[in-house]
Amino acid sequence: MNNFEEYINYFRQLKISVNEITTKEQLDNHQKVVVAHYDINGKVFESKPLYYKRITHAPSIKNAEYTEQFFQDAVYWLDINKHEWPQSSGETDIDDLIINDITDDPDFKNELLKLANNQGNGFIQLISKQGRSNQYYRNFENNNHWHDIILLIKAIIDGETNLDTYLKPLVFRWDGNKHTDRLRVSLSWHFGSRAILYHLINNISKKKISLFKELMKQEQIDLLHFKKQII
Questions:
Q1: By the 8 A CB rule, do 116 and 141 touch?
Q2: Which residues pair with 32 in a beta bridge?
Q3: Which of 67, 70, 147, 198 is 20 to 30 A removed from 40 (C-alpha atoms)?
């Protein structure tokens, strides 16, 4: 089994479910709150409450109204007033800051480190590595709730063609430079070139085709052996 096949198999086996627990007060404050459940090899872990903020009422957003027009729905991204994750420089401490924000359970923390970590060898990081620039190498995890990233990756593995539902809650990066305001922008291709998406889809598709060919070849070999046994 080569590495990329291992990544695909990991995400196929990982199951994610999400329960919304937003209160009326939070809804009136344009927030959404969820709890994510990770089913890893039959063991289920529950996250702490994870906060989102509607982008039309959130700071540091580029094209908020236009983004909602594109998705034809209210759009909620990670609430940067409740989570300290996003850093425009992409240098957030994943091992402590982000993972401690998701859970206090040491077993769950160990599983999350397999998804992303400061060394950059987590499954989320490895499966999308080819589409990341050095400048934004941690940006994908720093600006998004991880279960949303995993659901996107699983949808691509499953061959879903309309990814808007999975792209809606995801941020691409902080746009701008030292001479401008740093603003968050949508991961959707509609808002610009997204190499990380292209490589995810392209590499997964190539690997699935390769696996299919290997399976067909093995079935032909098995069929030849079966015919010889009949003769």
A1: yes
A2: 52
A3: 198
What are the E-state strand segments in 98-176? 171-175
The b/e string for 127-136 (b: 16+ C-beta within 10 A; e otherwise) is bbeebbeeeb
Contact predicate 44/103, CB 8 Å: no
E strands, 29-88, where? 31-40, 43-46, 50-54, 76-78
| CB of 158 closer than 8 Å to CB of 166 | no
Cα-based torsion angle of the residue sequence 60, 64, 67, 73 in order, rounded to the nearest 10 degrees: 120
Q: How many Å apart are CA 18 and CA 34, to the nearest integer?
A: 7
Integer-rounded Cα Rg, in Å, for the chain is 20
Helix (H) or strand (E) holding 185: strand 183-186
Token readout for 79 is 């609430």
Residue 109: closest CA among 150, 148, 146: 146
Return d(Cα 169, Cα 187) in angstroms, integer.
9
Over residues 161-200, the pLDDT tens digits come to 899 999 999 999 888 776 777 899 999 999 998 988 998 8
> In this structure, which amino acid lies at residue 170?
L
